[in-house]
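Exercise 7. Predict the joint structure of the components listed below.
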Amino acid sequence: MQFKKKISLMASAIALCCGGMVAAADTATVAQPDQPWMNRQLGADQRTELVLQAMTLDEKLKLVMGYLGADDEGKHFKRPPASHKQSAGFIYGVERLQIPPLWQTDAGVGVASQAGPEARPATALPSGLNTAATWDLQTAFDGGAMIGAEARSYGFNVLLAGGVNLMREPRNGRNFEYAGEDPLLAGKIVGAQIKGIQSNHIISTLKHYALNDQETGRTTLNVKIEEQAARMSDLLAMQIAKEEGNPGSVMCSYNRINGVYACEHNYLLNQVLKQDWGFKGWVMSDWGATHSTVPAANAGLDQQSGLPFDVAEYFGAALKEAVQNGWVPQARLDDMARRVLHSMFEHGVVDRPVPATPEAIDFKAHAAVTLRDAQEGMVLLKNAGRVLPLSSSIKKIAVIGGYADKGVMAGGGSSLVYPAGGNAVPGLEPKFWPGPVMVYPSSPLSAIERQAPQAKVSFNDGNDPAAAAKLAKDADVVVVFATQWTGEAFDVPNLSLPNKQDALIAAVAAANPKTVVVLETGGPVTMPWLPKAAAVLEAWYPGTSGGDAIAGVLFGAANPSGHLPVTFPASEAQLPRVELDGYPEPKEPRRFDVDYHEGAAVGYKWFDLKGHQPLFPFGHGLSYTEFALSDLDARVEQGVLQASFTVKNVGKVSGKQVAQVYAAPLDVRWEAPKRLVGFRKVEVKPGAGVKASVSVDPRLLAMYDTASKTWKVAAGNYKLMLASDAMDQKASSVVVHLDAAVYDVNGRPVAAK
Ligand code: BGC
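Solution:
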């Protein structure tokens, strides 16, 4: 694996910095008569034009050049003095015009820190996949609002969140940062999170634009994909997230697409994002993803990020020269600056400056937010003989493996949040980029002890399967934890649990049939021991309240309601690419193609198309109660397909069900037999029924037509299915006839000529 070394100062100690924090007032800016853009009564468009007119060439150039907010000794780079220590980035503002700098921090699960001795403690949400597994937009919003509040408190006005790359590759090391394999679910969830983040008057990104779906060779690979397939898959997820969340910025990715780098891709940046989708914010490059001055600027890149990651300061003096010579039109530089300014006005960055010194954070309240998210997203995959929930009157519990005595796993790379309390298991390899391997100090073992104070709870670290099996044999119930550390800049070689944990689980389950497996993984894994395990709970990376979240679900304090946002394959042989392209990475980076021959048939669509039986299908998730889905009805109202249905709780405890509506064309062909076209998560009391409905985005019933840039729904019959997962055998269905219809590139009806 090839690791990008982020910075050379690599001490991983955590400073618990916040004791003496000064609370700063939210100093509102004041309008001066000669600074009419500070008039809050005016709209963002007008204010932007006014300040742009007052700017010099050099001031505009300042806004489009970003620097790393950390020293890099290897590259002889010192962070700008006004940047925040160990932060991802900094862009100078224009003080004389009251335009503040941009202080940037990663990422989607909370306020991350670059490695070093002064990482800022913050609350980590569970992984993005966990939040997607909630299928709940309010939970996604709340999590976003919480991490956005922490970003603001630390003085950051840009959170580099909003990862929505589709899971085409289950071995991708960054899957945990994203939201799964379906464009509707991923787009809606990430959009809601962005909205939550920006509710703090700061800006969120949407990233990594686009088709950056594996880490192996991410800076050298070239994705080959048809335009139509891209529009109907990864780009659709981005488009929906953009509509839902209105992000201030979009981050273009490292890879090339059909031969062209994402950050100098005229089609992706100028045509799709800005022209077709009407994006008014700015495009920033990923750190090290700018490769030129003139081609990049003219293709639509608005801001270079994270110098010294790129080989040159392309958007510094070189851009000035290019503008002065007309190679990059002055109007283009104006547009670049305009876009940055517009987002700053629109999202309140100018009017509500972030505090100059960190404000105190209510970590207790935030712990409750991440706990809720974790518990809404954990997926109960199997529960044979209803071994779960555990009774608090159990006498002997054996807890095994997974550092469960210490804490819960976190994903690695730039998104790593450093928790209050420090790493519970310091020193695991790799210690440096994309490490350190972080275990959040929220011990499932202690939380289990709190849930079952009467029980004798014993722990074995799992290093010796025979000793673990011996402990298991003697227990009333066994909870075995397995972890898979994944992270940025590398992919996992296969879908097996690492470090011989499959053998450990098999040994433990053979010793005691009442074995509950808790998985803390970055994404899907295979489970050769599955028939032997009584229960399996997929806890993803559960965040800084992870231990309590897991124990609460195990004992039924919270009823699991997560559903898989990804397919769990039975083996790598079922994947579109059986071998991971470019793996293992050679020492000398080389260019290679990744052929997306599956087109838009991503995830369950591919499995449907090929007739593969997965280990667990997309959408799957059990509960401690039982649900019945009924009364599916579908009709077209004012041109929009509506589906309504009833969710009944036919079990004994209150719970939440995720009702999923899939559509399958009967008279025409899509890229795959069916698509998810709507979903609703509903809470239902035992014995009760709840009516719910979804309205279907027409793009999900259409094929994209590249020539006319429209979405075309073909006339014909379509089967709508009401299901609890993508392979639900009990799904009920109705057939609905749709007339031919045409929608514009954004899914709005095109008036018939
Ligand atoms: C990652 C981005 C991140 C940036 C800044 C890059 O390596 O791909 O997701 O926001 O670094 O840390």
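Discussion. Residues 31-360 form a domain with the TIM Barrel fold (CATH 3.20.20.300).
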